[in-house]
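Our working data are protein records whose layout never changes between entries. An example says more than a description, so a record of this kind follows.
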Amino acid sequence: MTLRLFPLTYYLLLITYYLLLNPPPVIAQRRTIIQPILPTPEPLPEVETLPPLEELIPPLETPPSPSQPSLEGVPDQITIKQFEVIGSTIFSQEQIAEVLEPFTLRPISFAELLQAQRAITQLYVNNGYITSGAFIPPQALQDGVVRIEVIEGEVEAIEINGLERLNSSYVRSRLALATKTPLNQDKLLQALQILQLDPLIANISAELAAGSRPGISLLEVQLQEADTFSLELSLDNQRS
């Protein structure tokens, strides 16, 4: 028998044809998508909502003021040409004159004279100087000029209670700028709110008490220190 030789290309074509008619079993490959496992972050410590301003420091209803001038010797009506306001370091003469304009250059009663005094006090209170006030000292009316004196409120001492580990000077130094004369409620409340955010302090409240004389106040501060162990543990967990 004579063997017939075929070229290599012929055999390759036969193999390809066979594979097309009888395909080999296919092993399905599964694609496994590996999702990166993100570490679960430690929950941040809850930030306590700041209490409203009225809880940090109760508002004073009226600023302290000396006793009202006596009615004795005062005529039913007087005409004031000018008010001389003494002791004001906050407001300009123009601002004060604008407030007192309704009471000048016309006959006014003694009750209206007291309204002029209260108008100066209200000017201070409306701008946050809640312990400042004005009063009319005893005087003789000369050339239609009435003198009004202003007492600008100040804090004579800061009393701090509730501290165990913190030094009182730590708190006092943070309130010093906010208690400069004349005392301003808005600045004091802002300083108290900043202290409330201090991680070393859990809670803070304050109260203004009457001092040794009109316009002088004692600032009483009640503090609750934060649990420093829990604070350090929480910070360590966040770093790890």
Q: What stands out?
A: The CA atoms of residues 3 and 63 lie 128 Å apart. The first helix runs from residue 8 to 21. The radius of gyration is 41 Å.
